[in-house]
Amino acid sequence: MATNEDLYWHNQRKSKEAIERVTSNTAIGNISSGAARAFFGINHRQQPGLIPMNKDQIGYTFFTRPLMNMTMENLRIDRRLSLLLTKEPTSYSRYIRTVFDNNLISSNVDCPLLDNYQAFIPILTNFIQSSSGWPDAVAPTYTSPEGQYKEAFSFIDGPLNLNGTYDINCTFRNILGDPITDLFYYWILYAMLVFEDRLVPYPLYWWEHEIDYMTRIYRVTLDQNKRMVRSILSADAAFPLSSPMGQRGNFEVGQPFSRENDMINITFRTNGLTYNDPILFDEFNATVIFFNSAMRDDRREQVFRTIPDWALNLLNGYGYPRINPADGSFEWWVDKRLFYAVIPRDLAREVDPAGEAYWDNI
């Protein structure tokens, strides 16, 4: 006959097994693992290798599209900008013009190279090689004057918010035709002409005193499986300071091809930085919705569906990003018609019966 003590230890064992199952898929692992023990108590035997090295993915760097006024009337003000008025829809000039102004679609000015519902500048995300200059979170301090015996004390004296201006350096790999250099050239040219009052923003931004050539830079790092957001940083409002046009004039005898602009270094002046604030999830998703209203919560599943892990390679280059605010997972959503045009529905059901059963009922 089981005693109360036997029942107690039986329940303890069952509870421990349940906790082991729940925690086995967490970043640290179950509570009996070496990693968990490293958090619980002191490794007084100094045994090495209890926790594996961090293997987070570098993730993505997103640059939101500015909201410039690239109408024909505005661009005709300056000869240099008039080059963007080409009628060739698949040219780099048309791409630059439309990526800066998503309102042009209403004037039948489009570019097949650009998804106008995309909130970010694809060629910058796709070809960025490095990003540096993000300041650390450093606590401001006050230290008292020293006394007679050199005694002093110090304490936190100020907010941790990064509300100042900072410079972030980004390096991009150039591609055939050097479109990235041109993109930044027209970006700063437009901004300088707005400063001179030769160009005018759209009336809405004029009335609201909003600077229309700003971008927001999101740095999103992911776990090793590229499924969960590990951290998110935001350069709240930024603009480029230069374009390396001068590199086009450099050359060296004996080199048949110019290698001066293989890499493009751009400095962004940023106004305010935000680190790991949960509101960034909502702001990131709101930016996606601003350019694509079908990504709203009340419409998204009727028009789009998530791309499952097994289909990501097949649909690489398509879809809209979203951060699930409930669990911090990073998702890619694609139009259902495109998904089933690439992957037949029967094949999808065969590969992932449970997942397809959900979308069949939407």
What does this entry show, briefly?
It contains 12 helices and 11 strands. Helix 4 (92-100) packs across helix 6 and helix 11 (345-351) crosses helix 12 (353-360). Helices cover 30% and strands 21% of the residues.
Structure description:
The N and C termini lie far apart (54 Å). By secondary structure, the protein is of the alpha+beta class. It has 3 domains: 37 residues, no CATH class; 198 residues, no CATH class; 71 residues, no CATH class. Helix 4 crosses helix 6 and helix 11 crosses helix 12. The strands form 3 sheets. A 6-stranded antiparallel sheet has the order 1-6-7-8-5-2. The chain has a 3-stranded antiparallel sheet with strand order 9-11-10. A two-stranded antiparallel sheet has the order 3-4. 30% of the residues lie in helices and 21% in strands. It is globular, with a radius of gyration of 27 Å. The mean pLDDT is 86.
